[in-house]
Amino acid sequence: MPLSDQGWLTAMDVSIIVCTYNRAESLRDTLSALHAQKTSPSRELEVVVVDNNSKDQTRAVVEEMQRVWPQLRYEFQGEQGLSHARNHGIAVAHGNTLLFTDDDVLPEPDWVEVTLAGLEKYRADSCGGYIAPIWEVPPPSWLTERFYGFLAIRTDRSDDYVITSPSQAPFGANMAFRREVFQKVGGFDTSRGRKGKVLASGEDGELFERILSAGLKAVFLGQSRVHHKVESFRLTKRYFRRWRFQSSRNIAQNKKMVGERRLLNIPLYVFPQFLRAVARMLWGHVSQPRDEAFNREMVVCHFLGLMQGLYRSRLS
């Protein structure tokens, strides 16, 4: 869908929310990049760091930077989970526009101004942007762009466009909202999203599903850019299998599935689908390129997580 080119927003207060968990040194880099933002002299801006039970030097890193940066705030959220931390940030932030990034991300120097200008230009209620990788080591040959979403990388398009489906939902490393969005649709679903070391997801897509259902406008801004660190341990098949399994398990525990005929709370139609996925995986390993073969393996991991999630929720 083409975008209109009409301005409507005036200067506004901005809160940048960074939720963090046990990444003190990486957080230092993120805060340094935010401190280097080139913003309008009249821009009232704050950065809110929400510490979600870190056991490292996170608080000390923030307090050290606060000595030269009074716009930096420290908040603690003891309820474990990224969605809990984000909702806490929303509740304590002062800005009329809320920008989100992560503790392993380096926004480009014009990130704030480009994002705000895009919201104004397209009269949007929310937006997301481009997320480029910073590889700690070169990615293996099987890790093609089809898997970038699992790493919260978004480089498939660099133009601006209207978001029309939850499948196009921005990633938390680069997204922004007018405050009124949360007043209309609520915050992040705390039953979804990463909790400590459990690799779950789905909270961003679920929020944008509510945003679109409410008739609010979301856009992708190709020039709103950040750079996301990708550690070497995340470039392994083991990590991807774990991510897919735990994310699908989390979704199954929180989303109803159709089907009255069940075994162990798993709809019967899931079992033949799972067996077909296994057969496709086995055939793929002898007949398909490495990325397609592993993609089929990921589908099997999805079914395994789905079934465990449904089994776990059988009593609720």
Automatic annotation (TrEMBL):
The keyword Oxidoreductase does not apply. GO terms for molecular function: transferase activity. Residues 15-185 form the Glycosyltransferase 2-like domain. It comes from the Bacteria. The keyword Secreted does not apply. InterPro entries: Glyco_trans_2-like, Glycosyltransf_2, Nucleotide-diphossugar_trans. Keywords: Transferase. This is Glycosyl transferase family 2. It comes from Sulfuricella denitrificans (strain DSM 22764 / NBRC 105220 / skB26).
